[in-house]
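Dear Dr. H.,

I hope your travels went smoothly. While you were away I took the liberty of generating a structure for the chain from your last submission, since the lab meeting agenda had it listed for discussion. I wanted you to have the full record in hand beforehand rather than looking at slides cold. The sequence, exactly as received, is reproduced here:
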Amino acid sequence: MQRQDEPLGETLAPRQETARGMDAAAGGNGRDGTARPAETDRRGGRLRALGRDLADALRGTERDYTQGSMGRALLLLSVPMMLEMGMESVFAVVDVYFVSALGASAVATVGLTESVMTLMYAVAMGLAMATTALVARRIGEKQPEAAARAAVQAVLVALAVSVPFALAGVLFARDLLALMGADAWALEHGYRYTQWMMGGNAVIMLLFVINAIFRGAGDAATAMRVLWLANGLNVVLDPALIFGWGPLPAMGIEGAAVATNLGRGAGAALQVWVLLRGAQHIRVRAAQLRLELALMGRLVKTALGGTAQMIIATSSWIALVRIVSEFGSEAVAGYTIAVRVFLFTLLPSWGLANAAATLVGQNLGAGQPARAERSVWITGWVNMALLAAVSVAYIAFDEALVRLFTDEPEVVAAGAECLRTMAYGYALFAWGMVMPQAFNGAGDTLTPTKINLLCFWLLEIPLAYVLAMTLGLEETGVYWSVVVGESAAALVGVWLFRRGTWKQTQI
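The corresponding predicted structure, in token form, is as follows:
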């Protein structure tokens, strides 16, 4: 049996050395070119070890991620995190897939609503970053009770901040869409989608924050299963409520929002149940369900940096989609579809980056900064290889991918061009995801905020306007500005990470 502290694939090392000596004495491979028996055994052993690791990753493990093989730790954390983010990306794709049958205006409504909600997502993600960092640090310090107390405060903050977004969405949905340049159809029919999505944002907040608790604790498999449930319900309910299956009414675009809220609500209910019952590494007890202002203050302080970081990043997307809207609903629809396709691969890649955040937080808590740093470099190179392969597929099959959602020629042309152009920067985008998560996992949410301010607000948005409006490249100019801005953020992040100041962060 392979011990937990052995590197992946190294269990059979003594046997391998013996086998090599035997092979040399026997003269190597047989004359027929068949593999040596010892070599076959080694390969089989590696495959069996990999199979056991994958099974552990999917069902969850009580492994201590501050010890043993870094490669195995990354595998056990990243596989469920990538699958979790893959499920989150399916949420985005499924809505557009079914709504696209209602026309370009309906797809544009989804895109504009998501752009408006980016502020809410920024708050949720900022709070999630702080939660992961705080929980991971306490777990690394071998203080699970303190981690559970931090988890409770994170949930309370999430519920509190969801209220103003819900009120804004329910009361001012039409005004928000009009501000974003929505067409007449969206203002007359599509606003109900916006009302439901923003009005039910509490379940989104809970999904983000409680899954961040699980990830910080090392319970990545639990977070993955939550998204499986939520997404499975959404996939079934989306077409049923949009088109009206059986006794269910045909609700049109409003049905897509209702389905999403029901699916996410079920996921949030499962999260709370698991948190109270106890996962692999963390459990909230009844005595811990109370307000702790000092602890909440530390959490909010760290979350403010993460929220500012995400507001800067996501508001840049609002500005970009506003520029794209100047060129018609077809351009917005094509851009929306392309971004959803990107999310389908970027979110699993983000899941891989989340593994780095957990490893950084736990290993800093255990007093092992060198191990924390090594985990980031390994994650970055793996992520870069993954997205480089995906970029080739986007360039080769740009139109085919967009046609999965629509056959409208102008929408297909706009979406395919967006896919193709942004794919040129995909390999560098990998580092742009890993490096911020490394800083965030350490609790240093200020450094990524500064990077985003420089590369998105001061570089990407002005460049998009100049290319699209001044130089007449239209939406193509917006796409190229994203490539430049995201690539710059990645390179600056790598440079700052190498300086190592993040290792001294205290939370």
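Two observations you may find useful: Confidence is low (pLDDT under 50) at residues 1-28. The longest helix spans residues 329-365.

With kind regards,
E. W.
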